[in-house]
Amino acid sequence: MSAIETLLQRNSHARLAAPGPDSEALHTILRAALRAPDHGRLRPWRYVVIDGDRRAALGQCFAESLRIRGISDPAKLEKAAKAPLRAPMIIAGLLHATEHEKIGRDEQGHAVAASLAAAQIAAESLGFGSIWRTGGYATDPLVIETLGGEPGDQIVGFLYLGTREGPSKLLPEEPLDLLVSYF
Known about the structure:
The protein is α+β, with helices and mostly antiparallel strands. The protein has a domain at 14-51 and 86-165: NADH Oxidase, CATH 3.40.109.10. It has helices spanning 3-9, 23-33, 54-68, 74-82, 105-125, 141-146, 176-179, and strands at residues 16-17, 45-51, 89-95, 129-133, 154-164.
């Protein structure tokens, strides 16, 4: 599939099964992420790859995060614990901003988002399905620390990767005239 076809057909896929990317595909996906626009070449991104048994450990971290916030409903805790098991691989993209007189935290966060989007497109072009998830865990200090982040870091997204299972949902063609103007 050409780059333009991949971009025009990209679609999140919630049902992902094994196999996920092997080491060669993962290397390609991460190299694509590192090519994202990055004003000042600050490299504000950090990636954490979670696969195999580590997905269950992340799930336990998610459940503990809820318990710390006072949530004790067993169904919610079980759902949190199982969340990382929805795909064979997850890439967490963290914002690790640095102080800079011209390039603020927001702009650095945009660079991390662009890098995750590049990783997602790379995964799609290699034949893998993906879905980008965020939610309360992305800003939770326990989750960030568990993934090796530092105080002030933020998870911009969890990119779930695997083999598509079942049909993709159909996305309507977006009407450009409603979303684009010319100055």
